[in-house]
Design brief:
single chain; alpha/beta; TIM Barrel; 8-stranded parallel sheet; 3-stranded antiparallel sheet; 11 strands; globular; binds flavin mononucleotide
C-alpha cells in the first residue's frame, strides 16, 4: 500500500504517521487518539517525574493496547555556572521589576532530567513498543537495557553525520528532523544551528546514508507533505505542530490563538526559554532578548529564570514570556480531532501518491 512499509512493520501500525512527543503540549489523550486511528501516539517524558510518566502510560493503556512511544531527552547535564546564571538574571531584571517579581526567590534548575537509571527502570516496567530519544542517545548500557525490553529505538538526527552515529549505536529507525521543525532542534554532534539542513534536503541524504528506515520530520502538516516525504524516500513521518490545534492536545489557549493566526514567516530559532535552540513563534521575550542570546545559560538551566515571568504573565492573560513552539508549517495546521486528522493525512497522502504513480 505504501512505497516503503518498513516502519509500519517495525512498529506494528497501519498509518505511517507518528505523533511527535511534545513536552508540555501533549499527553495521553492525544496519543490515544492517534494510536487508535492506526498511527503512533507518543508520550513525552522529558518534563515528567516517574509517577506522572506511570500515570500517563496507565491512562493510555486503559484505553488501548496499541503501540505507543515513550520519549526522553538525552542531554548532558551542565555544571551549574553561577556567573552565567547571575548574568542571565541581570538580563531579565527589568522584566522582574515590571512584573513585580523578586529575582532572589527564583530557585535554580531546569526541570528536565536526561534519560537515566530511573527512566530505564520505567521503560522496563511499562514495556512500550517504541522508545524515542532527542539530543542523541543514552549511554550504551542503557540502550542495551531498553533493547532487551523488546522496544524499538528511534532518535532524531539533524544531519547525515548524526544519522550515521545513531544507526551505528543501534537505532531501529532514524527521525530526520529538518530545520523547519517546531520545538527543540535535536542536534547533538554540532551546535551550528545556522548550518542545519531543511527537510527536503536532509531526508534523501539520510536515506542514502543509512540502512534503517527513515522518518521525516519538520514542516509536514498536510497530505502533500506526507506524500512528499515518501517521494524523498522516507518510510513514515513524524508530525508535531500539525497536532497542536487538535482538541486532545494540551496546547495552552494563548498558544492555540497564536497558531491559529500564524503565518509562514513568523517562526525563529530561539534559545531564550531553555538555553537550547528551538523553533517557535516570535513573542516579546524572543524579540527583545533573543532570538539567540549568548547570555542564556546552558540547556536546560536558562528555563529557571524565565519560568516565573511566564507564570506571572500567563496569569494576566499575556503570552509575552511563554514558549510558542511551532514549526514553519504552522499555518497549515487544522482544528480537527486527532484521530480524524491522522486518518485523513494517511488516506489523502496515499491518494496523492497513487495519482503520481498513475501519471508516471
Ligand atoms: C510544541 C512542541 C514540543 C516538542 N517537544 C518535543 C519533545 O518533548 N521531544 C521530542 O523528541 N521532540 C519534541 N518536539 C519536536 C518534534 O519531535 C518534531 O521534531 C517536530 O515537531 C517536527 O516538526 P513540525 O513541528 O514541523 O511537525 C516538539 C515539537 C513541538 C512543536
Amino acid at each position: 500500500m505504501w512505497s516503503d512499509n518498513r516502519v509500519l512493520e517495525l512498529i506494528g501500525i497501519e498509518v505511517p504517521i507518528l505523533q511527535a512527543p511534545m513536552a508540555g503540549s501533549s499527553g495521553a489523550e492525544l496519543a490515544i487518539a492517534v494510536s487508535t486511528a492506526g498511527g503512533l501516539g507518543s508520550l513525552p517524558c522529558a518534563l515528567l517525574g516517574p509517577e506522572r510518566i506511570r500515570a500517563e502510560y496507565g491512562a493510555f493503556r486503559q484505553q488501548t493496547d496499541r503501540p505507543v512511544n515513550l520519549n526522553f531527552f538525552c542531554h548532558a547535564t551542565p555544571a551549574p555556572d553561577a556567573a552565567r546564571e547571575a548574568g542571565w538574571r541581570a538580563r531579565l531584571a527589568a522584566y522582574y521589576a515590571e512584573l513585580d517579581l523578586d529575582p532572589d526567590q527564583v530557585p535554580p534548575g531546569g526541570g528536565r532530567v536526561p534519560f537515566d537509571e530511573a527512566g530505564c527502570a520505567l521503560v522496563e516496567e511499562c514495556r512500550p513498543q517504541v522508545v524515542s530519544f532527542h539530543f542523541g542517545l543514552p549511554e550504551p548500557a542503557l540502550v542495551e537495557r531498553v533493547k532487551k525490553t523488546g522496544a524499538r529505538i528511534i532518535a532524531s538526527a539533524t544531519t547525515v553525520a548524526e544519522a550515521r552515529w545513531l544507526e551505528g549505536r543501534g537505532c531501529d529507525a532514524i527521525i530526520a528532523q529538518g530545520a523547519e521543525a517546531g520545538g527543540h532542534r535535536g542536534l547533538f554532534l554540532t551546535d551550528d544551528v545556522a548550518a542545519q539542513p531543511g527537510t527536503m534536503a536532509l531526508v534523501p541524504q539520510v536515506v542514502d546514508a543509512v540502512a534503517v528506515p527513515v522518518i521525516a520530520a519538520g514542516g509536514i502538516a498536510d497530505p502533500r507533505g506526507v506524500a512528499a516525504a515518501f517521494m524523498l524516500g522516507a518510510a513514515a513521518v513524524q508530525i508535531g505542530t500539525g497536532y497542536l490545534q487538535c482538541p486532545e492536545a494540551l496546547t495552552a489557549p494563548g498558544h492555540r490563538a497564536a497558531l491559529a493566526a500564524a503565518r509562514d514567516d513568523e517562526t525563529v530559532l530561539t534559545n531564550v526559554f531553555t538555553g537550547r535552540p528551538a523553533r517557535g513563534l516570535v513573542n516579546r521575550i524572543v524579540r527583545e532578548v533573543g532570538p539567540l542570546s549568548a547570555e542564556a545559560p546552558a540547556f536546560p538551566l536558562a528555563s529557571a529564570a524565565v519560568g516565573p515571568l511566564r507564570a506571572r504573565a500567563e496569569k494576566a492573560g499575556s503570552r509575552d514570556f511563554s514558549p510558542l513552539w511551532a514549526g514553519q508549517a504552522a499555518a497549515l495546521g487544522r482544528v480537527m480531532p486527532a484521530g480524524e486528522l491522522t486518518r485523513w493525512l494517511g488516506a489523502a497522502a496515499q491518494a496523492l501518491l497513487a495519482q503520481g504513480a498513475r501519471a508516471r
